[in-house]
Amino acid sequence: MTIFGTSIPFYKMQGCGNDFVVIDNREAGISESAMATWAEKVCARAFGISADGLFFLEESDDPVLDYRWHFYNSDGSRAEMCGNASRCAGKLAHAIGLAPAEHTFGTDAGPIRAKVILDGPDAGRVKVQLTPPVGQETNIKLDIDGEPLTVHFADTGVPHVVVFVDDIEALDIMDIGPKIRYHDHFAPAGTNVNFAQVKDENTMLLRTYERGVEAETYACGTGASATQLLANALGLTDAHADLTTTGGEVLTVFLEDGNVFLQGAAELTFKGDLFLEPLGLI
Prior knowledge:
Low-confidence stretches: none
Helix content: 10-25%
Mean pLDDT: 95
Number of domains: 2
Structural class: alpha+beta
Strand content: 35-45%
Number of strands: 17
């Protein structure tokens, strides 16, 4: 307790521009019932720390898991999985002694295997094996403002629509993104929406409108994974592809024996003390 009130430590991380606040819940002890409210207030753009999401790390009773997380979008909605955040979780958990460099942690979508790469040209990057994709469907016909649109779908931990386009820079994502995200075809849960431009069999450009953030984000790991999965199924790419995100960084997706692996950067940008009273938190 200081003159500024009660505080708890926090970490701020980013994975390809997707930014997250992280709280070590072994120390903080925040109840699960309060976590959604914490996410809304902590992630707020002017009155909080500002982030795309907030997740809590804590020990797990499951002997198969090194730890588990609770992940929330900035609007307080709980998400089953987030690819960029999973890399951040893996790197931070290793850095604070919660897990070894290769480990498994629990999410609402199931266990996630993570490997912090310690040596070689990819040192510092993190590779995660996502949960098995489900619900894959290609060539879905939608009506958007009276015009036909062909989209594709896969759930790579969270639901994703993918639209392949010829000119990704010409898109007005804040116009078309919500129309697909809230389309009746994907009700009631809704979907994330990815727009991809295939450059060659190993290279794509990607922009993503994220459910829960309700805006375009700099990157989305599960979205990149769904995009590569569907592009490969349609014969547009090989089993490995690099996807350049809106933030300018590259996510690499590998398809191996029916499994999806996501590799990319995960960086600790700063850490500090979060003062609770100004945010109305206890």
